[in-house]
Write a structure and sequence with these properties.
- By secondary structure, the chain is α/β, with parallel strands linked by helices.
- The chain has one domain (26-129).
- The chain has helices at residues 2-18, 41-54, 119-129; strands spanning 30-34, 59-63, 72-82, 85-94, 99-101, 105-108.
- Strands 1, 2, 3, 4, 5 and 6 form a six-stranded mixed β-sheet that branches.
- Helix 2 links the parallel strand 1 (30-34) and strand 2.
- Helix 2 crosses helix 3 (119-129).
- The protein is elongated.
Length: 138
Amino acid sequence: MTRFKNIAKLSAVAMLLSSGTPAMSDTALRILLRCDAGHEAPLCDALAKALNAKWPDHILSVSVDEDAEADLTVRYVEKHRAKDWLSGHLTWHRADGLHGVGPVIEYSLMDRTLKPDDLPPYASQLVRSTEFPNTEND
């Protein structure tokens, strides 16, 4: 079983390298997306992709660890959730103490239950609508 886990880890690293994800460097900012496991997992995946699209040259990690540190920490705050509707906003906190809150965004479907495949547009709108701090290195 351990052998398969190692193969899976190596495969994931190879996919990251081949997809053009930047190698870690001293100049790349560390961005942490704090996500809860469970029902938020599909949304966290969509948010990670949206944040990666916004900052392709930075190092993004996803964690539930409250003690994890980064240059910029982003969190989704859910306001309401139903089978066909959600609303929430993003908050961010920079390592130097600067912080902010994005607007509440609502997302709903009229004809069916929300599925994980429906979440990328919502995640993209959350990222686009939030005024993040300047992430350029000084």
